[in-house]
UniProtKB/TrEMBL annotation:
<keyword id="KW-0813">Transport</keyword>
<keyword id="KW-0769">Symport</keyword>
<feature type="transmembrane region" description="Helical">
    <location>
        <begin position="45"/>
        <end position="69"/>
    </location>
</feature>
<dbReference type="InterPro" id="IPR037272">
    <property type="entry name" value="SNS_sf"/>
</dbReference>
<dbReference type="GO" id="GO:0015293">
    <property type="term" value="F:symporter activity"/>
</dbReference>
<feature type="transmembrane region" description="Helical">
    <location>
        <begin position="368"/>
        <end position="388"/>
    </location>
</feature>
<keyword id="KW-0472">Membrane</keyword>
<dbReference type="InterPro" id="IPR047218">
    <property type="entry name" value="YocR/YhdH-like"/>
</dbReference>
<feature type="transmembrane region" description="Helical">
    <location>
        <begin position="90"/>
        <end position="112"/>
    </location>
</feature>
<dbReference type="GO" id="GO:0016020">
    <property type="term" value="C:membrane"/>
</dbReference>
<dbReference type="Pfam" id="PF00209">
    <property type="entry name" value="SNF"/>
</dbReference>
<feature type="transmembrane region" description="Helical">
    <location>
        <begin position="12"/>
        <end position="33"/>
    </location>
</feature>
<dbReference type="InterPro" id="IPR000175">
    <property type="entry name" value="Na/ntran_symport"/>
</dbReference>
<feature type="transmembrane region" description="Helical">
    <location>
        <begin position="450"/>
        <end position="470"/>
    </location>
</feature>
<protein>
    <recommendedName>
        <fullName>Transporter</fullName>
    </recommendedName>
</protein>
<feature type="transmembrane region" description="Helical">
    <location>
        <begin position="240"/>
        <end position="262"/>
    </location>
</feature>
<feature type="transmembrane region" description="Helical">
    <location>
        <begin position="153"/>
        <end position="172"/>
    </location>
</feature>
């Protein structure tokens, strides 16, 4: 069986290749674009602390669970869940978990591609010297003009979707595996350079203080910048749900991306070690991005709660003023595109693997079909920043983009993660998870099993109940 399957899909060439691909999936727009702006909207350090707790208590154990389920099932998430449910004598309805993941990945991809398109546009801006000597007002205008133009947004969205489809259609192993190995370290180096810039030129003390010092009065504070430029804040349980949702989003958990990557993993590699490396790399990337951005925000009198435009309105100020900024800026946005690219391919892979397995489609046809659907849906996000930004086009006070983001990050991923924890902790036999994790039967395995059975599910449930107002 497993041999026949490895003919359908490639396998990673080594444990390192798996780690690189999974880090490529994890480190993306979530770290550099989303983490800073949601931290800015949700009160800073207190939010970061809740996020870090979610990463440690939920992220690591569920990362291990997803990898082990994937490697044991060795197929797309849908078929993996079906196969394992049958093997473990669990209800066939577990197959639906795979479906929810495929749908979540496709919804996320639809807006991810639009935002990655902004980064593509900024490669051009940086390379053409558009930031040189520009003040924060000029930088803000540059961003506003991009958002105001549906045609421009659509163009970059289309280009990015084509790039994603192009790579996935060829199979993940040939191109990506190697490219990721070079580009990810380069992205980290550039983030460190930007942190150094922020240290010398920004308001580093205020920025670091905002990011790292928890002000518990703000755990429940959510702020937004109104179109009028006014800032509106309210007290709500939402920041905690957003922190939980972001822990899943940033680690690519809860939708089968890591599961499908795990299914291509060599049988002997250590799952726990890999999970730890992935989580640590992702967290460092997010914190570095925060340390690069907030000092520039405060030094230029910008508003941390500016929303999705935050990095596009701050980092160019740094690039415009620093020596060699044109080169560094160009490089930075190229790497950001690359980070987004290596994540986007993992958003599409679960669906593609399923179409190849069950519908007998070629990878090219499978990838192109999903790509076209996600592209169409992405038009809703394109319009959310211009023609559909008005209140008459909103639902529950959210634009299309905000709705898709909220539904996927804050509901579908945590729900998917909860089910994965329940499956790995309760539906799977102890012997199955123990053999797959290869941790022996000692303290390490026992702690993982305890956390995945009780702690992670309880925390996710608590946050949910709190969010819908039952707690
Ligand atoms: N982890 C990616 C990021 O932080 O940008 C986003 C992502 C990729 C989420 C793949 C989910 C996923 F399956
Ligand atoms: Na991430």
């Amino acid at each position: 069986m497993s041999q026949a399957r490895s003919l359908i899909h490639d396998q990673w060439s080594s444990r390192l290749a798996f780690i690189m691909a999974a880090v490529g999936s994890a480190v993306g727009l979530g770290n550099v674009w989303k983490f800073p702006y949601i931290t800015g909207e949700n009160g800073g350090g207190a939010f970061v602390l809740v996020y870090l707790v979610c990463i440690a208590l939920i992220g690591v154990p569920i990362m291990m669970a997803e990898i082990l389920i994937g490697r044991r099932g060795r197929q797309s998430p849908i078929n993996t869940m079906r196969t394992l449910a049958a093997q473990e004598g669990a209800h066939p309805a577990w197959g639906w978990l795979g479906w929810m993941g495929v749908i979540a990945g496709f919804l996320i991809l639809s807006y991810y591609s639009v935002i990655a398109g902004w980064s593509l546009a900024y490669v051009l801006n940086a390379a053409s010297g558009a930031f040189n000597g520009a003040d924060s007002a000029a930088i803000a205008a540059l961003f506003d003009n991009l958002l105001k133009s549906p045609a421009a947004l659509l163009f970059w969205h289309t280009l990015f979707m084509l790039m994603t489809v192009g790579v996935v259609a060829r199979g993940v192993r040939s191109g990506l595996e190697q490219a990721v190995t070079v580009m990810m370290p380069a992205l980290f180096i550039l983030l460190v350079i930007l942190v150094l810039y922020a240290f010398y030129e920004g308001d580093f003390v205020r920025g670091a203080d905002f990011l790292l010092r928890p002000d518990f009065g703000k755990v429940f504070q959510h702020c937004e910048l109104l179109p009028s430029g006014e800032k509106s804040c309210r007290i709500t349980g939402e920041p905690i749900l957003i922190a939980l949702g972001h822990a899943f989003f940033t680690l690519s958990l809860g939708m089968g991306a890591i599961m499908v990557y795990g299914s291509y993993m060599p049988a002997t590699a250590s799952i726990a070690g890999a999970a730890l490396v992935i989580v640590v790399a992702d967290t460092i990337a997010a914190l570095l991005a925060g340390l690069a951005i907030f000092p520039i925000v405060f030094a230029n009198g910008l508003e941390p709660a500016s929303g999705p435009g935050l990095i596009f309105q701050t980092l160019p100020i740094a690039f415009g003023a620093m020596p060699g900024g044109q080169l560094f800026g160009t490089l930075f946005f190229i790497l950001l595109v690359f980070a987004a690219w290596t994540s986007a391919i993992s958003l599409i892979e679960p669906a593609v693997a399923w179409l190849v397995e069950n519908r007998g489609l070629s990878r090219l046809t499978a990838t192109a079909s999903i790509g076209v659907l996600a592209w169409l849906l992405g038009i809703g996000t394109v319009l959310s920043f211009n023609l559909w930004s008005g209140e008459s086009c909103q639902l529950f006070g959210k634009t299309w983009f905000e709705l898709v983001d909220y539904l996927t990050s804050n509901i579908m991923l945590p729900l998917g993660g909860l089910c994965i924890a329940i499956f790995a902790g309760w539906a799977m036999a102890r012997a199955s998870s123990r053999d797959e994790l290869q941790l022996g039967d000692g303290l390490r395995y026992r702690s993982w099993r305890f956390v995945i059975r009780y702690v992670s599910p309880a925390l996710v449930l608590l946050v949910f109940l709190n969010a819908i107002g039952l707690l």
